[in-house]
Write a structure and sequence with these properties.
With about 220 residues, the protein is α+β, with helices and mostly antiparallel strands. Helices cover about 25% and strands about 35% of the residues.
Length: about 220
């Protein structure tokens, strides 16, 4: 997938013919210390696989030479040996995963293009002003795009969206250009971090890629 200068994107589709143990063999023991079990295990492997590919492209190394580790708060980082080698963001959904590697804070979200948000979720998750941004339409499924933009922006700030849903606001939408502006709103209404989010389509998926802007 194409990406702005300095950002390196990678995406993978799940192949049900590839067993979990074959995917596990692609990771180091240290990476597997954080491995998930249960329903999210396959997605975890796919997401980390995409992250290794994205970081490898950025560092001009093979994916096997890069490790993806998480800090205490859960934010992933790429490592070359014992040295932290850049920011990572990843996302996995039904049947696929995507990741972005960069030398600056970034975030990515991936969702099936056909996924829909219920009216209840739409009104609960977005302010009237945000919902008006979806009325102009465009080449993207507007409701889903606004959700993905929030998710990607929150990741770029190192935050979990669901913990701060009312504070993450979509401020502007340029649908023809596929660009949204998402801002962190303080308790007093002041604007904090801001991210520019680029939207794109990859196969049957919507991709939202966020870059934190200087304050």
């Amino acid at each position: 997938m194409p990406a702005p200068k300095g950002l390196f994107l990678a995406a993978v589709k799940d192949d049900p013919d590839v067993a979990d143990q074959d995917l596990v063999a692609l990771f180091s023991p240290r990476e597997l210390e954080a491995r998930r079990s249960g329903a999210g295990a396959r997605g975890w492997l796919l997401g980390r696989l995409a992250a290794k590919a994205a970081a490898g492209r950025r560092l001009r190394l093979s994916p096997a030479e890069v490790e993806i580790r998480s800090e205490a708060a859960g934010r992933p980082w790429s490592f070359q040996g014992a040295v932290a080698a850049g920011f990572i963001s990843l996302s996995h959904t039904r049947g696929a995963a995507a990741a972005v590697a960069a030398g600056r804070p970034v975030g990515v979200d991936l969702e099936p293009w056909s996924r829909s948000l219920s009216d209840r979720a739409w009104t609960w998750s977005f302010t009237p002003g945000e919902r008006r941004l979806a009325e102009t339409g465009g080449p993207f499924p507007a409701r889903l795009a606004l959700w993905c933009a929030k998710e990607a922006a929150a990741k770029s700030w190192g935050r979990a969206l669901l913990n701060h849903l009312s504070r993450v606001r979509v401020a502007e939408a340029d649908w023809p250009a596929g660009r949204l502006t998402v801002a962190w709103q303080g308790r007093g209404g002041e604007v904090g971090e801001t991210s520019e989010v680029r939207l794109s389509r990859w196969d049957a998926y919507l991709v939202a890629l966020a870059e934190t802007q200087a304050i």
